[in-house]
Amino acid sequence: MPKKRVAMRVLWDVLRLSAESDLSVRGIGRALGISHSTVLGYLRRAKAAGVRWPLPEGMPEAKLKALLYGPPESARETRPLPDWSEVHRKIQLKGFTRHLMWERYRRDHSDGYGYSKFCALYSAWKKEFGQVTVPMDHPAGHSAFVDYAGMRLEAIDQLTRKRRRVETFVGVLGFSNYLYVEATWTQRLGDWLGSHRRMFEYFGAVPSYVVCDNLKSGVRKSHRYDPEINPSYQDLAMHYKTVVVPTRPGKPRDKAKVEQAVLHAERRILAPLSDKRFIGLAHVNRHIRVHLKELNERPFQKLEGSRKSWIDTWERSAMKPLPAEPYEHAEWRKAKVHRDAHIEVRWHRYSVPYRYVGRSVQVRLTDTTLEVLFDDKRVATHPRSHQKGVTTKDEHMLDAQR
């Protein structure tokens, strides 16, 4: 069976993450929803073709494809190998990373292997040596961890006048442990994405990647190596130029950071508010913000400073700036172009260029706009209609139809 073609924007993300983040090949694959072998293949082709990130401005897709899919090298070179036992011993020490050890290796062997191959060879050696647990490291600005707390407050829904339990979203930065906590009515997709948008605004910047549990709102299909990210969640990540990395099933260390943050939120914020009466969600969040501010400004017990001083001094400057416009929640659907060059979305029909008749297209819906995409390229845009009817553009039709 032929392999599924990967979109060019995914290829660009592979090159970007390999250059700008410390994610492994498998980590990049999990973040982008593709296999690690595909990631490794792209990186090998890019290295062989001399393609590096950032790409030259204005490089067309056709030229990039031609560079990456040129003829492979006829023979492999034999290159010097490092002392893997020494590499393995150093990596377990605080501050030593694979990239640092690779840099030292290349300093001694200028003709040595590239970083991706170095990591692949080290992983192969480690399989023979035996599985060893290495402490996880969280450099400044690289990661945020998100989840929901088990403890829930109650509030009166102003629409139904009934008392409801509210969900508590918790986000934490990996380096400074700076917390974000807010209440939402549900864990559904709209609330999930809205919490991320408000979390980034509260941080004042965006981390390189977001680690989430396998909640249905974020991850459609859980898998140890190739989870399927919800398209709307992936859309939010692309808007903020970050990457979603789901935790691996059966790997509790992946979410240890956020579980500790949830514990702090429950003890310092939710428990003190548990006996209060709230009218509406805004009322709950006003009280949460007061306790959240106190928790983030509370001095560390064994370190100098606080969560707030750490993010202000070191972490925020290492993060990415917020985009000019906040994320607008988008819903993704699939549709087929009918013989009259229209698609139907929620009882309304929209025109598409006639050459796409019979094709399956992707549809991106916001409150105000409908976009039609084919092969990740936008082919039609319409104002969103919430009523039954037809919207047609003359340029989409044949002359006879006009």
Keywords, separated by commas or semicolons:
five-stranded mixed beta sheet, disordered N terminus, four-stranded antiparallel beta sheet, OB fold (Dihydrolipoamide Acetyltransferase, E2P), single chain, 3 domains, flat, Nucleotidyltransferase, domain 5, 402 residues, alpha+beta
Secondary-structure blueprint of this entry?
Layout: H1 8-20, H2 25-32, H3 36-49, H4 61-68, H5 84-91, H6 98-108, H7 115-129, E1 143-148, E2 154-157, E3 162-165, E4 167-173, E5 179-184, H8 189-203, E6 209-212, E7 219-221, E8 228-229, H9 231-239, E9 243-246, H10 256-273, H11 281-297, H12 307-318, E10 331-336, E11 342-345, E12 348-351, E13 360-365, E14 369-374, E15 377-383, E16 389-391
Parallel strand pairs: 1-6, 6-9, 12-16
Antiparallel strand pairs: 1-4, 2-3, 4-5, 7-8, 10-13, 11-12, 13-14, 14-15
Helix pairs in contact: 1-2, 1-3, 2-3, 10-11
